[in-house]
Amino acid sequence: MARVTRPLPDPIVEARRQWVAHGWSDAAAGMTAVTSVMRAHQLLLARVEEALKPWGLSFARYELLTLLSFTREGRMPLTSAARRLQVHQTSATHTVDRLEASGLVRREPHPTDGRATLVTLTPDGRDVAASATAALNTEVFTDLGIDETEVEALISVIARLRAASGDLVD
């Protein structure tokens, strides 16, 4: 006799049910929100990674290339890049190491501050940033799976969450 398998319930909905059943009703909505955001992060990151795969880029490396491409001269101090990307200096250094090994950026001495290092976009890096951005715009950013009004509402809610956590938000 064939065994009938029922589809699994939404794990996040089930987790919320369990929270309530265990007497944590006051925390159930917050747990559900956090878990939902974490799952959404996984889903979006998978789409981004798939779009960036042809260039062998992680999202962190893509962000740095794009940040540099937005500057007038295609360069900035490494410490400034770390601050703007909201990452630790060590993470930014590791990202630059990987991009430099790929020939997409190069390190240069700062012209006036002997302690600082400039990260400079190479012509190949500029080309990769432009191509990867076109792919992300087409494959991810223009269609998140929710309509424009919902996207704007999501941005607003997340901005309030970030601000309540002390993050820099305009």
Describe the structure.
The mean pLDDT is 94. This protein has 170 residues and is mostly helical. The chain has a domain at 44-134: Winged helix-like DNA-binding domain superfamily/Winged helix DNA-binding domain (Arc Repressor Mutant, subunit A, Orthogonal Bundle). The protein has helices at 11-21, 25-52, 59-69, 78-85, 89-101, 123-141, 148-164, and strands spanning 75-77, 105-109, 117-121.
Quick gist of this model?
By secondary structure, the chain is mainly alpha-helical.
What are its keywords?
170 residues, mainly alpha, Arc Repressor Mutant, subunit A, 63% helix, elongated
Average pLDDT, to the nearest integer? 94
What is the percent of helical residues? 55-70%
Query: Would you identify the CATH H-level superfamily of the domain at 44-134?
Result: Winged helix-like DNA-binding domain superfamily/Winged helix DNA-binding domain
Q: Pairing-aware structural class of the strands and helices?
A: mainly alpha
| Tally of DSSP β-strands | 3
Order of helices and strands: HHHEHHEEHH
**What is the terminal-to-terminal distance?**
62 Å
User: What integer value in Å does the Rg equal?
Assistant: 21 Å
What is the CATH architecture term of the domain at 44-134? Orthogonal Bundle
Query: What's the helix count?
Result: 7
Question: Rough shape?
Answer: elongated
Main sheet makeup? 3 strands, antiparallel
Side by side, the strands of the main sheet go 1-3-2
Q: Which stretches of 5+ consecutive residues score pLDDT under 50?
A: none
Estimate the strand proportion.
5-15%
CATH class of the domain at 44-134: Mainly Alpha
Q: Which fold name is given in CATH as the topology of the domain at 44-134?
A: Arc Repressor Mutant, subunit A
